[in-house]
Specification:
By secondary structure, this protein is mainly alpha-helical. The chain has helices at residues 8-18, 26-44, 52-63, 67-74. Helix 2 crosses helix 3.
């Protein structure tokens, strides 16, 4: 089976769909956990950004994910 790369726009769409349900739905929570990993990896690979928080803010903005939602979920 061949898996296609998850596009940036898809990450934002998946987040918007599953974040509101993550607290009461195990599948949505798992999807959000995987998305957090992908987002952190994408931020880590940004070139030209030396500050981790700047990298994260840029990645979240590019992916269309609200910063407050990401950090609330990631820190929970």
């Amino acid at each position: 089976m061949v898996m296609n790369r998850l596009e940036d726009r898809d990450i934002g769409i998946l987040w918007a769909e599953h974040y509101p349900q993550a607290e009461g739905n195990a599948l949505s929570k798992k999807i959000c956990l995987m998305l957090c990993f992908i987002i952190r990896e994408r931020a880590r690979r940004l070139v030209g950004q030396s500050d981790w928080m700047m990298q994260m803010n840029f990645a979240l903005r590019e992916l269309g994910i609200p910063k407050d939602q990401f950090f609330a979920f990631d820190e929970a």
